[in-house]
Design brief:
The chain has 2 helices and 10 strands. By secondary structure, it is α+β, with helices and mostly antiparallel strands. The chain has one domain. Strands 3, 4, 8, 9 and 10 form a 5-stranded antiparallel sheet that branches. A 3-stranded antiparallel sheet has the order 5-6-7, with no helix packed on it. The two termini are about 30 Å apart. The C terminus is likely disordered.
């Protein structure tokens, strides 16, 4: 397959993922609520990991060596003008945060992973890398997939977190996929 055709194929695949996420978020937003509900507690996705397991490790991918959780799921940061940006409300439906497992007090990394920390957010302790909160992308279909890399939504650009060289979130070299509307999906 030629390089141009492969690039178009990736763009089509990324757009299909984005459209699928839009449909899921739209359905979730349209869902009814029961008047017998006793509270309106907001559920926050969490990552369950044994307290002794590393929460973040590295993996090789088509994007290079990236950071993933202990099950191999890719983690991302949201940046606006090179600075970490917040993901709140509807954003958290598409981009669930990487949270410390219950009973864990410190973010840990496998050998070679540095710059981890936490911030009080989303009803618990969210894992950070070099100060930037870490998130998953709902459109990733398994360990090591990077479908969210370069998406421009919810006030910034989402980037796979690159490992090595002291760590840090490195903007993608791919062309960002954009979504219609100013607020994201």
């Amino acid at each position: 397959m030629r390089s141009g055709a492969r690039s178009r194929g990736r763009k089509v695949t990324r757009m299909a993922v984005v459209l699928g996420v839009v449909a899921v978020v739209g359905l979730a937003a349209c869902g009814g609520s029961s008047s017998s509900s006793k509270s309106s507690k907001k559920s926050t996705p969490t990552t369950k990991a044994p307290a002794s397991a590393a929460i973040v490790k590295t993996a090789n991918s088509a994007k290079g060596t990236i950071l993933v959780d202990n099950q191999g799921k890719t983690v991302y940061t949201l940046t606006n003008a090179g600075q970490p940006a917040p993901c709140t409300d509807a954003c958290l439906t598409v981009w669930p945060p990487l949270m410390l497992p219950a009973g864990t007090t410190k973010a840990t990394g496998a050998s070679g992973v540095t710059g981890l920390g936490t911030v009080a957010a989303n009803g618990g302790q969210q894992v950070t890398h070099n100060g930037a909160p870490l998130y998953y992308f709902m459109g990733d279909q398994g360990a090591g997939t990077t479908n969210g890399d370069g998406i421009n939504s919810f006030g910034g650009v989402w980037n796979v977190v690159q490992a090595g060289g002291g760590g840090g979130s490195t903007p993608s070299t791919s062309t960002p996929a954009t979504t219609s509307g100013g607020g994201g999906y």
